[in-house]
Design a protein that fits this description.
mainly alpha, Four Helix Bundle (Hemerythrin (Met), subunit A), globular, 275 residues, CDP-diaglyc--ser_O-PTrfase, two-stranded antiparallel ribbon
């Protein structure tokens, strides 16, 4: 009897140790490095490179999920890793860059603004994680953290570029620019925790064929960005940062549903979300 039991244990195959997928997590780690690089550059007063690090992290962050879906390598580990990377690259990094660049000149008000942005980024990411299954995937509930980071970092990048041409930027004194930075930081942070709908572009199918004119427009868009990247990119993200409130006001005026929570009450815990 003992020998049979021992034989069964020997013949029973060992469970394979569950690993992680390398390819999508490499993109996530690269995005995390972009955020870390931004903080280091801000500490060394290279704010132009700090802003570029945030934008590089945005590009890499947009790729990791697509790579995971294309290669069928999605995992719960990857989702958690992506959220933690986003918190560093689009939460802590922009707040620290803004503080080092200008906000620390405001004393207590400066670090309060930076902390509000950082806290709102954490709340935004936490809400996104728990609402993934109930939010309409075509829209973001609140300004996505990469776009909020682009507002803050883009403004700093633009002001740094213009600041090289003179002591004053657009006839604004440094003190005035500091308060504008304060306003931008608060606006970006608080916009992340609103219920305003921001288009997610997730229904754009990359595998479908498109008319030739679309490729021409993309080429023109790249050419326009290259005219002066800081100005064009910042303008695009300002427009996107306002678009959610425009859509919200439009739907409210039309009497349409403004909440991005899908109409589904399959789970009892979700019923309170559909009000």
């Amino acid at each position: 009897m003992h020998d049979d039991t021992l034989s069964d244990e020997i013949q029973q195959p060992r469970k394979r140790r569950k690993g992680i997928y390398i390819l999508p997590n490499l993109f996530t780690l690269a995005a995390l490095f972009g955020g870390f690089y931004s903080v280091v550059m801000a500490m060394n007063a290279r704010f132009d490179l700090a802003a570029l690090g945030v934008f590089a992290a945005m590009i890499l962050d947009s790729l990791d999920g697509r790579v995971a879906r294309m290669t069928n390598t999605q995992s719960a580990f990857g989702e958690q890793m992506d959220s933690l990377s986003d918190m560093v690259s689009f939460g802590a990094a922009p707040a620290l860059i803004a503080y080092e660049w200008s906000l620390k000149g405001l004393g207590r008000w400066g670090w309060i603004a930076a902390f509000v942005y950082c806290a709102c980024a954490a709340l935004r990411l936490a809400r996104f994680n728990v609402n993934t299954g109930v939010v309409d995937k075509r829209w973001f509930q609140g300004l996505p953290s990469p776009a909020a980071a682009a507002l803050v970092a883009g403004f700093i990048w633009l002001m740094t570029e213009w600041g090289k041409r003179g002591g004053e930027v657009l006839y604004l004194s440094w003190n005035q620019i500091t308060w504008v930075t304060f306003a931008f930081t608060l606006y970006a942070g608080l916009s992340m925790v609103t219920n305003a709908p921001f288009y997610s572009f997730k229904d754009v199918q990359m595998k479908k064929s498109v008319p030739f004119a679309v490729i021409v427009l993309i080429a023109l868009g790249i050419a326009v960005i290259n005219i002066h990247p800081p100005t064009v990119l910042f303008s695009l993200f300002v427009a996107y940062g306002l678009s959610g409130y425009v859509v919200y006001a439009w739907r409210k005026a039309k009497g349409q549903q403004v909440s991005m929570i899908s109409i589904s009450t399959d789970e009892p815990d979700e019923r309170g979300l559909h009000k």
